Amino acid sequence: SSTMSLSEAEVQSARGAWEKIYVDAEDNGTAVLVRMFTEHPDTKSYFTHFKGMDSAEEMKQSDQVRGHGKKVFSAINDMVQHLDNSEAFLGIVTPLGKKHATQLKIDPKNFRIICDIILQLMEEKFGGDCKTSFEKVTNEICTHLNNIYKEEGW
């Protein structure tokens, strides 16, 4: 059974789009975080070890930024692999959402910010079609994360 609101064809094209950017998971994950921290400096406050970094260059070189960029991309990759299985997809999204809501207390609007930056990067590197085919996936991810936050009382 296909998940949520994505057709079989949409799942396939989303995976194709994601593969292009996931090939360089660490570099692209880092680029996404650096752009987020630069354009939305308040997001840095959640990461104690990134707070003092002001230059994009410094962030790009940081092992912690690189490590977290890779982590974000790995998590999304797990979700993308399970777009056609609701149960497995939710099995990945739910604990992630709960952790960010309860332990890390990350404002859920930041998930939308990070997803939008991923879409921008896809468009810049691979064109509009790539971005369009991944847009529905980011909407699914953000919708499910927001639902988990609501359940946790946000």
UniProtKB/TrEMBL annotation:
InterPro entries for this protein: Globin, Globin-like_sf, Globin/Proto, Globin_lamprey/hagfish
Domain (Globin) ranges: 5-150
EC number, UniProt record: 1.15.1.1
Record field: catalytic activity: 2 superoxide + 2 H(+) = H2O2 + O2; Fe(III)-heme b-[protein] + nitric oxide + H2O = Fe(II)-heme b-[protein] + nitrite + 2 H(+); Fe(II)-heme b-[protein] + nitric oxide + O2 = Fe(III)-heme b-[protein] + nitrate; H2O2 + AH2 = A + 2 H2O
Statement: the UniProt record of this protein carries the keyword Cell membrane: no
Highest taxon above the source species: Eukaryota
Signal peptide as annotated in the record: none
Keyword list, A-Z: Heme, Iron, Metal-binding, Oxygen transport, Transport
Record-level Gene Ontology MF annotations: heme binding; iron ion binding; oxygen binding; oxygen carrier activity; superoxide dismutase activity
PANTHER family attached to this UniProt entry: CYTOGLOBIN (PTHR46783), GLOBIN FAMILY PROFILE DOMAIN-CONTAINING PROTEIN (PTHR46783:SF3)
Protein's recorded name: superoxide dismutase
Source species: Molothrus ater (Brown-headed cowbird)
